């Protein structure tokens, strides 16, 4: 560990490799984002919205469970091994979608996508946090999420364009095979960060050794900061699970073409990704708490704006604002987790947080599908928006400032 240094500048090549790698991790999700709900309705004749959104449920629960497992495994085996293992599941996703003859194959493909994302994305963010100084964590996470959600946005737009030019299947999913190959090769070049983690762990308090059960309880409900962060995370992705499943259907009902839907659906994660370049860094300077509170409230207001307007240009504005609100919280929540958790159990705590956060995809799809089947798409979107509003209120009341330079608590 003689030559190991903590800091982004000191590890710039490895940091950049991790940023680029996460672009390809995010692209795997973007590949499906525009067209899979439409495939379910048009190709497989799924009349029930709940059935059509079952692929998001399978993705959300598998990603959530793997996030939880990945954190513990990474603390024991190292980050790079888990990252490479994650890519091994990625190739199954486009192949299964291309050759699917029934909807259950799409659902299973998204279980593998959840495993791929749970392992690969978790490791890119943990490795960046291992490298970064405490005052650089917001920037590190923000850049990681910027890269990932830029990948989501680019592939959402590209897949929508290809689908409108050729067909919904198989052409857009040929790109997925190339994404996996490039992502795996990049991950081979990444250097593991176990020595950086060991260096950060020196001098940590004795609470650095916690059992998996203790970390789970502390992150879920015992620690008021960690539990407030966790509730904000699950509310954010519950909203996103709804948006993923219902936006294509909502805008189809409004009369937009597949290509136009691709633009609106892509702009939301594009804004989400772009603004994280700034929000994570700003949270390193002015604090985490009010970024989280404001971002949760902006998400709710943006969803209600999308429902209130009726023009393509205003839907674009709503999508961008929704992305901004999400960008305000996404890197900040993960940076706040890393502020509170000790280095020895940080990846495990991050895994618990990401378990609950990404289970929001599944709960969001279930809730959105149920509300749409009982009421309609508009009501479903409007009611789901109550969750991020509530999480913002909880954070305003319970969450303390966690940024080390501003926090009274260590």
From TrEMBL:
Q: Where are the transmembrane segments?
A: 12-31, 51-70, 82-100, 106-125, 146-166, 172-190, 290-309, 315-333, 377-399
Q: The Major facilitator superfamily (MFS) profile domain covers which part of the protein?
A: 14-403
Which CDD domains did the record assign? MFS_MdtG_SLC18_like
- Membrane topology type, per the record? Multi-pass membrane protein
Q: What InterPro entries does the annotation carry?
A: MFS (IPR011701), MFS_dom (IPR020846), MFS_trans_sf (IPR036259), MFS_Transporters (IPR050171), Sugar_transporter_CS (IPR005829)
Pfam families, per database record: MFS_1
Q: Where in the cell is it found?
A: Cell membrane
Chaperone recorded as keyword: no
Keyword Membrane found: yes
UniProt xrefs under Gene3D superfamilies: MFS general substrate transporter like domains
Annotated keywords? Cell membrane, Membrane, Transmembrane, Transmembrane helix, Transport
Protein name in the entry? MFS family permease
State the species of origin: Priestia iocasae
